[in-house]
């Protein structure tokens, strides 16, 4: 094996020296032969063409893939649909049921469709999930908006014996948060780009009046 390989390499090197010999011979013959000159011209044109194609490719990428924008989620309104509570002062317990109607819209600012996966809207109390509702996967067309009416309910029994919750209800204002995250993909050329949009709103609910203050929402996006 070793012998064979060494012999082949020697023939290779011999071929190389022949090549270089031929090359130097042709160089010494000036002016250049027309065939060789054509080859050189073709080579130049090919290089030029490749550069143009690369330039166009980068331009297209710059105008499309790197121009991908995140969908924009907006909370249009939050309203109390139902609110019932009863205080059990003797046992420091509160039975509290609330159902919120959350109206959101998601705008896809891209020139292509946005496909989102199954998502969830959460209702949170001091960082803990106390209610959730699914948002089924779907698609939003290019430069289109879609609105969703989400019904968030508090799973009341979770906070039944919570003293913090109890004192919040007594104080007249209970602060909840809704957290909605919608993630998906935007497809451009052969690229599938992950985009996500999420929002959290602080909801100050006044149980005695069955209403809430204007929600304070924070919107975030990331690539
Ligand atoms: C809250 O809802 C539960 C179950 O849906 C019900 O049993 C309970 O009576 C409700 N509490 C109030 C205060 O309406
Ligand atoms: C999304 O949710 C629907 C309905 O709940 C379900 O049928 C489907 O399998 C889910 N898709 C994924 C990818 O989990
Ligand atoms: C959501 O509710 C609002 C007002 O309650 C209504 O105008 C809108 O059409 C509803 N949207 C959907 C998608 O059901
Ligand atoms: C009440 O809820 C808060 C927030 O969810 C939690 O930090 C606290 O530990 C709970 N207290 C009790 C007694 O369960
Ligand atoms: C809630 O309702 C009460 C009584 O109707 C009212 O005085 C209060 O301004 C309302 N609060 C908000 C934030 O709408």
Helix content: 25-40%
Please state the overall shape, judged from the principal axes of the Cα atoms.
Answer: rod-shaped
Level-1 CATH class name of the largest domain: Mainly Beta
Extended strand count: 11
In what range is the share of β-strand residues? over 45%
What's the architecture of the largest domain, going by CATH? Sandwich
Q: What is the CATH homology-level superfamily of the largest domain?
A: Immunoglobulins
Hetero groups bound?
2-acetamido-2-deoxy-beta-D-glucopyranose
Instruction: Characterize the biggest β-sheet.
Output: 8 strands, antiparallel
Instruction: Summarize model confidence as the mean pLDDT.
Output: 83
Number of domains: 2
Order of helices and strands: HHEEEEEEEHEEEE
Q: Number of helical segments?
A: 3
* CATH fold-level topology of the largest domain: Immunoglobulin-like
Query: Cα distance, first to last residue?
Result: 55 Å
**Spans where pLDDT lies below 50 across 5 or more residues:** 1-28
Radius of gyration: 34 Å
Structural class, by secondary structure, is: alpha+beta
